[in-house]
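User: Last request for today: this protein with iron/sulfur cluster, please.
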Amino acid sequence: MKKMNVPFQTTISDPPVSLPEHTDQKYTPTHSISILIGGAAGTGIMTLENILSDAFKRSGYFVFSTKEYMSRVRGGSNTTLLRISDAPVNAPCWHVNLFIALDADAISHVHERLTSDTIVIADESINNEEIAITSMPMLETVKKVGNIRYANSYVAGVLFAMLALGTEILSQSIETLFDDQKPQENETAMQEGFSYGKSLTSSQLPKLPAPVSGLDNSMHLVNGSAAAGFGFLLGGCNMITSYPMSPSTGVLNFMASMSKEFTLLVEQSEDEIASLNMVLGGWFSGGRAMTSTSGGGFALMTEAMSLSGVSEIPAVIYLAQRPGPATGLPTRTEQGDLNLALYSGHGDFGRIILAPGDLQECIDYGYLAFELADRYQMPVVYLSDQYLADSISMIETVDFSTYEQRRYIKTTEASYHRFTFNDTGISPRGVPGLGEGIVVSSSHEHDERGQSTESYQMREKMVEKRQQKINLTIAEAFAPKVFGQGSIAVIGWGSTKGAIDEVLKELNDPRLFQVHFSWVHPLNPEHLEILKATEANIVIENNTTGQFADILKSYDVNIDHRILQSNGFSFFTDQLKEKLSKIIKEEK
Amino acid sequence: MKHPLDRTNINNAWCPGCGNFGILKLLKEVLTELDLDPKNTVIISGIGQASKTPYYIDTHMFGGLHGRAMPVATAIKASNPSLNVIAEGGDGDMYGEGGNHFMHTIRRNPDIIHIVHNNMVYGLTKGQASPTSQKGFVTPVQVKGVSSEPFNPISVALALKAGFVSRVNIGNYAHAKTVLKEAFLHKGYALVDIFQPCVVFNKVNTYKWFRDNTYELESTYEKNNLLSAMQKALENDPIPIGIFYQSERSTFEEHFRGEDKKALFTLSHDLKKLQALFETY
Ligand SMILES: Cc1ncc(C[n+]2csc(CCOP(=O)(O)OP(=O)(O)O)c2C)c(N)n1
Ligand code: SF4
Ligand SMILES: [Mg+2]
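Assistant: Here's the final one, the structure of the complex with iron/sulfur cluster:
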């Protein structure tokens, strides 16, 4: 057999990797404004979102945008929220400063999010008895320019004029975004909108904060799907086999686009059962494979989760949550599948569950998912959700060369046995064709060779070996992140990180501090000591029962309050602030 | 009757007289006669009596879940295209629980030998009907006899334009060996459906029954014609055995990798390129 070289080949005796340190936030928020855009699916809200976020970023602002949309391709009523600030924003707000209604339905769809201070901008053909509207001749003007499709550029022009910004940057954004689709007509529509916007005066017009200099070059606008994808590639992912399901499809699309750049196999499987079985086949022969899915698809994968457990084959599962049960709300968000991820599969076996809370963590934990699956030879579930996957936010340049690359596979000798016992419980993983050994993998209980067995003594030893691995993952688990100090812990996991952070900063109550879990399972009891020294613990999560709160309780952590929500939205900072204030008043 | 490919120190769980012994012998002999390196060969199986086969041959093996060998095999081949990949299991495993994967693996056309032990019964679970059980077959579950139409793997594979479609009878050993060798030499997906008597739970489709109810396709039979292959596939009294159809096209692995057969474990991504792509955001 010819000698083959495995790059980054290592063994379990290497200590666990650590993530590169990221610089602390160097920006202090002073002020932000929120712009909501509403319209039917298929009318180009996303185009407007792209023009505006690009132009605001070029103008020196931090931009955050998030969408809520119906499960349909055309029609209905969808919105995109943009928040513009002088410091990073990572959460949506319910009430908005400006609302752009692209059609009449949009107004009724969002009227609860409007306050008496909200400026509502709509085409002159739209009237509403209860709400004051700032009219613009949008339809008439863009028809003159040539096509209703230019409405997005027109609206961008109106908005930039109202916010006292110039057209120069907007022109650049339009040129970049429409480089092959009529940039000239879009430019004209934008200029028309801009001159109309100049004529509008309103004492209520929200003021932008001062721009941050040098921002455009150091920051990147990325959504949670792409950030996760960069993380997976950084972790060496070279195979993804998935069955499409919202909201996980963003990752599948991203990886497919990257398959033109890297040796990366992308296959749309016939069902989710095939997806995860392919992932196991991929790892078995030395690939680094993953699947992307949502709750319903993951439910179909549970038998293969169990196979990963017994045969100690690594697996990475990107699970983007949406509200169930069953089809639930297909395009909306929830953190309702933690228990599914935790208990999926029959029999006892170890697994790791990661839930990134922002873009940096999307990348870090994407990388980590592959590293951990390989190191511990067990399934790693990466929990995202529709909110995190679809939201666009800003992230500082990431230096990919600072992430340590490792490949825990063994070049085998003729006497190789796949499941040898040792003091870590982790037997060196050989792969077919690398070395002189034979690799035997079995879904049955097996002996050290991998040969199936019914010996109860061997069963006991193998159970103990798999338990040893679990103990190792507990010992090497990442601690929750603690922000600030105080007597009342505000606890979250996954995508609630930004909302909780903003609310705590706004409340500025010295008793409150944030404890955030991005490594969700298994927990190391030592890391929970901090929650046993508090006066009160408040858990915030986006599901009906408080799935994570219950897990903490099982470690004897007192849970004094739960702030839960399962209406299909992520937490809005203004609403969350109100709920949290009420609770801490009780705590006085 | 020791063979160099025997896995040592094992406990064979099959019943004496079972057709599976013949298939095991056949596979070992074909691997040896074709000089295939066991260290470069992987057998993937599911669950069932047939799926125990790889536990008795000393090649690499992946013992998977009932019905799920095909997606595993497809991915193994794709991540290391230089391996010889064999997927093996029973009729329930491959055509029942794994029926969806059967169809879609054919469509993908990975370079895999697909061996199905067709005993027209569920052996391991003690005698229920399988998708290929014949009408009227009485079991403890199908107490009034099987009422469903039997699954015809040959015509289904042909309908999906499988590149190599064959059926043999393990009772006709020499013929079976010729066909299995051809399957190994074929580039792309190759189905070898093997009639295998289950001497315990199928008292109808016995060695004698298979001998009396099959005939070898004539030497003049042209195996490159899909329509006539389909006609042959639908004959069932007696049942033709042999290679029904053969035609080569490019494989699943080639679609992704072209001529590159390097194992994925020898590669890594260019992180400078990844960095540059990130900077475009
Ligand atoms: C998901 C799942 N369902 C059911 C079973 C039980 N089971 C094991 S083998 C088998 C059928 C065996 O029949 P076949 O595939 O024809 O193999 P044979 O034993 O006849 O060789 C069944 C139903 C299982 N192991 N897994
Ligand atoms: S039950 Fe049937 S198929 Fe299984 S080993 Fe016995 S004879 Fe063979
Ligand atoms: Mg059978």
